[in-house]
Amino acid sequence: MEDKSFELLSKMYSDIMQKFDNMNQQFDTVNKKIDGKADKADIIRLENELNPRIEALFDGYKQHDMKLEAIEQKLDNLSDKVDRHDIKIQVIEGGRK
């Protein structure tokens, strides 16, 4: 289970980083256009296009973080349960001697 969770989290992290790279490329393109011939209308249009995308990206990041915390909590609970079972097994095996 831990391997699958780690693989899922790794994939999600990779996807988010890829989105950030794409955003950086878009910003580079925008900056090149702005350095050339940009007027206020172009800048406002670009801001209006990019702001919702950035907000959606950060919302996805927040959801990823919340899911990671939930998975960590479940993992901690399972680890505690395994520890309790180990103690019970030791007690049971100690009584058989």
Structural account:
By secondary structure, the protein is an all-alpha fold. The protein has one domain. The protein is 96% helix and 0% strand. α1 packs antiparallel against α2. The chain starts with a helix and ends with a helix.
Number of strands: 0
For the record, give the distance between the C-alpha atoms at the N and C termini, rounded to a whole number. Answer: 35 Å
Cα-atom Rg, whole angstroms? 24 Å
N-to-C SSE string, H for helix and E for strand: HH
**Could you estimate the helical fraction of the residues in percent?**
over 70%
Oligomer: single chain
> Please, what is the average pLDDT?
84
Uncertain runs are none
Q: What does the overall shape look like?
A: rod-shaped
Number of helices: 2
Largest sheet, in brief, is: none
Structurally, the number of domains stands at: 1
Note the beta-strand portion.
under 5%
The computed structural class is: mainly alpha
